UniProtKB/TrEMBL annotation:
Source organism per UniProt: Rugosimonospora acidiphila
Protein name: UbiD family decarboxylase
Residue ranges of the TM segments: none
Domain 3-octaprenyl-4-hydroxybenzoate carboxy-lyase-like C-terminal positions: 316-443
Domain named 3-octaprenyl-4-hydroxybenzoate carboxy-lyase-like Rift-related: residues: 112-310
InterPro entries: UbiD, UbiD-like_C, UbiD_Rift_dom
Entry superkingdom: Bacteria
Amino acid sequence: MSRYDLREWLDEADAAGLLTRLAGADRDLEIGAASQLNYRRATPRALLFDDIPGYPRGTRVLTSSLSGPALLGLALNLGADNSDADLVNTLRGRPSRWLAAAAEFTPTEVGAGPVFDTVLREDINLERIPAPLWHEGDGGRYIGTGCAVITRDHDTGVINLGAYRMQVQDGGAGATINIEQGKHGAQHIRRWFERQGRAPVAVSLGHHPVFLVVAGTEVPLGTSELNYAGAIGGAPVEVVRGEATGLPIPATSEIAIEGWLYPDQTRPEGPFGEWTGYYSGGVTPAPFLRPERFYARRDPILLGAPPGKPPHDYSYMRSVMKSAMITDALVDAGLPGVAGVWAHEAGGGRSIVIVAIEQAYAGHSRQAGYLAAQHPSAAYMNRIVITVDADINPRRLDEVMWAASTRCDPGTDIEIMRRTWGSRVDPLYTGGPRYNSRVLIDACRPYERLDDFPPVAEASPQSLRAAAQRWPQLDA
């Protein structure tokens, strides 16, 4: 893991029985459809597509790299022997430690790397990479779904990695980069436009999945995702400098491009099947990147992470990572009694957040809901926050909804927050400022009734353990 090399990660996944190779899938819909079937399996595997019609053997597409606990564990340097519960428990506290340690893992600049196996300075055509048409209703081929878009803060120099959608344009001469307002990459680009009239951008299009993890989650502003990835892996990331922009690119990236964005250079972009499960945004102008450099390894691998109706390519990763980050955020904010957090895949890892607490005082459960609804680690496109008692497993929606239906009085325990941080990809968005609203459901037992609330009608833990010991086949 010290080299953050996708090919070494693929060898580990293969040795653990977590990799499936598929030959002959067409980039028009077949790669997307096969990936969707895989996401819905009980145990998804990473899918590596080769022998793609119209492309040389060895020019490959990888999907499903983070679609289960074992695969995500490999990406996070935690090994492949993880169940869902194991991974959640192991990650408790780690995002805070990674963030605190990030400054110690400044990337190491090297003079060369595998990404420089092929260097093109002219006649660049992105059609040389088999960017799929992921969904029937997409407006074009998307080369950037599992990508890491690299930008630099104009004033501080801090590097950001963001996973933004990129549509191939002009017959392969370039690609649009569609960045949601408020994202760190968008802030960087606006500042460069104001100060310089153009903005430098590099994009890694294939890489170790840890870069998809850090690019696809809310690492706090001011901390570089390259440093954060180094903290996760326990060693600095080796980077090379792009010839055109000077931006750092992971030395083991499979494919990378770089160039400059200009405020007056846009292309119509979309629609695209988004993580909400809908084709969102219609066709709108998006910044157009005409690459000045193209870099690739021999037999390059495009990392695909197409969203869609959950479960999708990265919904599991986002649920786990967001849950861990929200847990740390609540604890760091001083909220006592945090027993568990889960950002459900059904909401794309963002829109449904459950917080379980050990109630300590009147108003505690409502405080937990407000904090979870608006903390930066959870605020974007949040729509439903439910607080439950610690006896409820937040990962199980059946338990959560049981609590909501028996411990929540809608007249007093439901509140609405309005004009909160929404998104263009919200299927309810109709134009104008990108607000949404969110509901806070207090499904905890009333604090004043903790002592006399009716007990739960179920066997005690001791009785369940005794029954499981006597009849172990019932506990399988």
